[in-house]
Amino acid sequence: MEITGAVLVGKLTVIGLKSVGLGATALPGKMAIKIDPNLLSVVDQRCKKKIIITGTNGKTTTTNLIHHILSSQYKNVLSNLKGANMEQGIASAFINDTKKEYDWGVFEVDEGSFQAVVKHIKPDFVVITNFFRDQLDRYGEIENTSAVIYEAIKPLDTTLILNADDPMVAKFKELHKKCVYYGVEENELSSKNQRIVESRFCPICSHELDYEYFNYGQLGKYHCNNCGFQNPDYDYIFTNIRAGPDGNLCDIDSRGEIFKDIHFNYGGIYNAYNCLAALTSCLEAGMDASKAIERTENFEYHLGRMEVMEFPDKTVKITLSKNPIGLSEVLKSITLDKRKKALLFILNDNPADGRDISWIWDADLDNLHQIENMKYICCSGRRAEDIALRVKYTNISPDLIKINDKMRKSIENVLKEDVEIVYILPTYTAVFQARDIILSHLKNRSSFLLNIKELVEKLKT
Amino acid sequence: MGEEIKMELNIFHMYPNLLNLYGDGGNVLCLQRRCEWRGINTNIIDFTLNQEQDLSEGDLFFIGGGSDRSQNIVYPHILKYKNQMENLIEDDAVVLAICGGYQFLGESYIDADGNQLPGLGLFDYYTQSEEGRLIGNIITENQLKLKPQTLVGFENHGGRTYHDFKPLGVVKKGYGNNGKDGKEGMVYKNCIGTYLHGPLLPKNPHLADYLILKALTRKYGVKDLAALDDKLEYSAHEKVMKLYSK
Ligand SMILES: [Zn+2]
User: Fold this and answer.
1) B8-243 is classed CATH 3.40.50.880
2) Cβ B23–A360 below 8 Å, yes or no?
3) pLDDT per residue over B57-110, tens digit each?
4) Measured on CA atoms in the order A69, A70, A71, A74, is the torsion positive or negative?
5) Could you give the C-alpha distances from A410 to A316, A323, A442, in angstroms and in order?
6) Domain at A5-297, CATH from 3.50.50.60, 2.130.10.10, 3.40.1190.10, 2.60.40.420
7) How far is B55 from chain A (nearest CA, A)?
8) Ligand 1 (ion): which residues have CB within 5 A?
9) Residue in B13, B197, B206, B237 annotated catalytic
10) Phi and psi, residue B129, nearest 5°
11) Which chain A residue lies closest to B65 (C-alpha atoms)?
């Protein structure tokens, strides 16, 4: 018998509805949502409170951290932790879990899906991290992206948790919702000038903004001389930042209340913003501050987006790098690391990466010159030659540059290098594959060491 | 023999803070490096709003694309330089305009709602917004008789440009000016307009050197350029061919 599409979908509808009603089978969210577009409304009803995290960079980290913090106080927290952030991703998270009731729903939502998601899921809080250029061929320009989200928030009864340091985000105060602002004080990674500024024009009157300093992309202390638009007053601000390659130590000033020496395991100013976005959300959600801080400090990532793996002879760090600001900031944070090191770029141009890889020329790769003890820069992925070319035009010594468009081989090679640390910077579709390859090496390497130990023991007896 | 003069090119990067989509600034970096590597001095002049400067000092001009908003901000300012630009182009100055910049050199841009947004009007072509964006890797055959014959890049535009100027390339793969007539870009004297991002020049070093040589010929009467090691450049070029020529 030939199974037509309609029959198949019909059959799946039954299973799909069953799964929603009875919590039976796991079904891919994509199929389920095709069958029942109201699935997200079911999710909405089952979560007592909801937080949606959107923006360009930092969504996944912020979402995971909020989930981690809230889980210490609440038993049932539903979240799409793996970065699948369109409607299907949320549906999948639910279908794989399907409880009757959740204390919290914490959802990362892609900028392009925000409008569709909030038709069903009515958030108590919306966190907006930042607006940078990302995968332009999918969303059009940055102004349009933020305008669509702006319109979608209008009818919502929600509290906005806004990055005060991004003018594109601070603009959302014009919606006159309840707003909570967070930001990061000037620190040693801040700069007076920013080569790649995405939009340094006033989002209110289009006049050029004056900046006192830049923290990260167009995030910083800004002022419009024409209409007076500037950073709103902070409700939460990171101060006294002591940045290191393995994390940041900061204080939080929350409306005059100071929390001292908070350590976050992940370096780079972008992670300071992620960390503060999550803490702000959880404290506003009513969490106990000391507990929230404790959870922040013991947060660990296991997803490959930002992961550290220890080999017997070296440390391997993977950091997803998929847009100009992200890549520039990762390189900037590597400049703090003085160890003998190798770098592996993995550049793919699959649809999920964004087919246009020209963004690597918008990234500030001059940071490469500031990195000490660099022994080897390997370029891999479908567009290995393109990233190698980008590196060449920074005038870095050509002897350092190696090309191998086969990812597996390039990882193998870089792991053999005589260095203390290997930084792996993959684009989206490369990140999970790269992680699996590294993990398999880690297993082999440690079992090899075990065998040697056993052998030594045997020889002793 | 007299002392060899140190050659120098003034490269004007037009409105880099406003017209800077899709990595196009990489073209300026490419020109700069390829001059440097040959011992030719470059002065990169960031030309933008609130700045009144004589363009006649310029040897090479680069104009990128921007959002509609950015182009509207640029328009009244650049309009003051229309005559000077016109004279420069007639006088064989080198101009490279990409995407929005290319559209901007024409008479007008007609948006999706039928509104006519004025261009600089240096050339009598127009661009019309039509349904669906033309996005993807593009391969053309250049009409400048450069070797290799192919140009590779990435296009991403909603506007369709129509004209009878000599095209920069004939489309082999992709859409080009309008997705209909098989032409990509335009060439008038040493002024080139094109939709190719990528950015265009690093992966097409033959075109980069063509522009540099034209500028040097105009300024110093130079006839040829020293060769560079372009193995990596052409391997990136070849990669696009390998992945996307089918
Ligand atoms: Zn203003």
Assistant:
1) yes
2) yes
3) 999 999 998 877 777 888 889 999 999 999 999 999 999 999 999 999 999 989
4) positive
5) 14, 22, 15
6) 3.40.1190.10
7) 23
8) A 202, 204-205, 207, 224, 226-227, 229
9) B197
10) -75, 125
11) A141
- Which of residues B134 and B5 earns the better pLDDT score? B134
Distance A199 CA to ligand 1 centre (A): 13
Alpha-carbon B223 to chain mean position: 22
Which CATH code, of 3.40.980.10, 3.90.190.20, 3.30.70.330, 3.80.10.10, is assigned to A305-448? 3.90.190.20
B20 and A362 within 8 Å at the Cβ level: the answer is yes
Give dist(CA B156, CA A48) in Å, integer: 43
Distance from CA of B116 to the nearest CA of A (A): 20
What distance in Å separates the CA atoms of residue A190 and residue A194, rounded to the nearest whole number?
9
* B99 catalytic residue (yes or no): yes
CA proximity to B212, closest of B6, B25, B31, B30:
B31
Q: Which tokens belong to A251?
A: 């204080």
Q: Residue A417 is which amino acid?
A: E
**Rounded to a whole number, what is the distance in Å from the CA of B158 to chain A's nearest CA?**
10
The single residue listed with the structure tokens 């050197």 is B209
The string of pLDDT tens digits covering residues A226-270 is 999 999 999 999 999 998 777 889 999 999 999 999 999 888 888
SS3 sequence, chain B? CCCCCCCEEEEEEECCCCCCCCCCHHHHHHHHHHHHCCCCEEEEEEECCCCCCCHHHCCEEEECCCCHHHHHHHHHHHHCCHHHHHHHHHCCCEEEEECHHHHHCCCEEECCCCCEEECCCCCCCEEEEEEEEEEEEEEEEECCCCCCCEEEEEEEEEEEEECCCECCEEEEECCCCCCCCCEECEEECCEEEECCECCCCCCCHHHHHHHHHHHHHHHHCCCCCCCCCCHHHHHHHHHHHHHHCC
Over the Cα atoms of chain A, what is R_g? Answer: 23
Instruction: Output the DSSP codes for A160-210.
Output: EEEETT-HHHHGGGGG-SEEEEEEE---TT-BS--S--S--B-TTT-PBPE
Q: Say if residues A170 and A150 touch (Cβ distance below 8 Å).
A: no
Answer whether residue A193 shows pLDDT above 80: no
What strand order describes the sheet that includes A247-254? A77-79, A102-108, A47-54, A125-128, A159-163, A178-184, A236-244, A247-254, A257-264
| pLDDT, tens digit, 9 for 90 and up, residues B9-21 | 999 999 988 888 7
Residue A171, amino acid: K
